[in-house]
């Protein structure tokens, strides 16, 4: 057992701040940008840094629960989480039954395919146990964090700002690694890539252009994170929120995403651009259509000016850019794409071979999200997740309409685009979405909905009929705004 430098920093820090659980959540969001490093190494297994503050947070809150502490929005949180809890229960049960029910009848791709080089016959394995453990931790953390964040003294908007700060951290690491790859600036590989269980692709190139993966295991994973930062910051800026540094994060995250040269990132951004008008129509904010048009026009103008300056200063960039564009356009002809597509086709065939039940969580590893879910948890699990997503989205849109712009609404406006972007990217190149920072974003969304419900109930119970909720909510928003150093258009 060894403790890398990340663990040497995190363990004492979490121990020191254990009595302040909200700080654990801030630390988790920042530690979430280091998925390829390890806080603790046990043999060939590395514990991800986000797991340390998550376990510290859960231990403190569970201890409070044992002592009889309750939170104001527990009923709403549990109602929203019920479909997900049922899906988790089905997943755990199926991971035990399905590998034994269909044992030696179907071929699957194992979790560690490098050791076998291809598909194997289905049988119960350690992957069922390890993936179940991760799932239970993620699910328990989601429910506990959502319940805890309904406390009135928890500032959800500050957590969202920490999420944006993590985006700035990744942008900085991208630029640092780019300088390392191009100019030889020292870069601490051993700090960012200390997890022995991850295959890190940090030396890839697209022709003469280095592919940047920052603190992630591969460029596609880095691009997926940057796409959610980009989509989230773009949407809150379009909505009129003036969160500190959010406007500058839009071009910064876009530039860092370009440095990854990831096809996954480019496609995700293209889908996000197409979704912006749809989101404006769905939310009833017709004025955003003009803002979106202006944003696209300004983006195209800045891109054109940047290209002209870059071509003038460094003309050797032109053939490199042409190579990147050509390799992206011809991605379907590459061997890696063919291999990943074959894995997805094999995974989809398991759905019919198992009569829609799946082979069990942890038994098969696909290349993208939907084949991975269908092949493991089956149609029942996927339908349950769709019910959970629809119920959560509907509740979020309803809560958004009930209050004027404020802290909770800022979280709803910012978190939904981030979750959508992460799911789009995972649908292209990730078999699961199992990172704790992703589940924390879901918990923040659920907590924001529950807090708005509490505000509405309090307004109905204690306020006279002529005093509307917006008046009460505006007073809360003004109180929060007094702590801000910037002068936002919308105080959140």
Automatic annotation (TrEMBL):
Keyword set, alphabetical order: Membrane, Transmembrane, Transmembrane helix
Keyword Transmembrane on entry: yes
Coiled-coil features, chain-numbered ranges: none
Residue ranges of the TM segments: 45-65, 77-98, 133-150, 162-179, 254-283, 295-318, 369-390, 410-429, 435-454
Keyword Transmembrane on entry: yes
Record-given protein name: O-antigen ligase domain-containing protein
